[in-house]
Amino acid sequence: MANTESYCERFSNxxxxxxxxxxxxxFMQHGGQKLLNYPPGHGTVPLNSxxxxxxxxxxxxxxxxxxxxxxxPVAFILSGEMAVAYxxxxxxxxxxxxxxxxxxxxxxxxxxxxxxxxGPGALSLDSLWSKRKKxxx
Length: 137
Prior knowledge:
Blueprint (H helix, E strand, L loop, with lengths): L1 H35 L13 H18 L3 H20 L6 H4 L2 H16 L6 H11 L2
């Protein structure tokens, strides 16, 4: 039984890393659209605007999240960004997320919030540094 538990724990740690990496790659596309118009979207936004700040958080925060660098604090900030995005942009168009097109903001808010508690999983700079710290290197 202990063997199965350790195998499942390893597997879940790897899947957590996959979720982090895929979420980051998808999230960074939104920042790329806002700041670089890549992938092509609606054009760039001014950097000194609320949408510009969102673009920086999405691109830079997404890159940190992708690498698993400062994962918990970055995830906390990005979770907050998605909550703000939902209530400032989407909620004005109706109560239900499916009605106001805010499903992505809601799910990302809670995925990032999950990472605040769970940590980055495998394949992250945070876990690499944690292992080094424990070994005394």
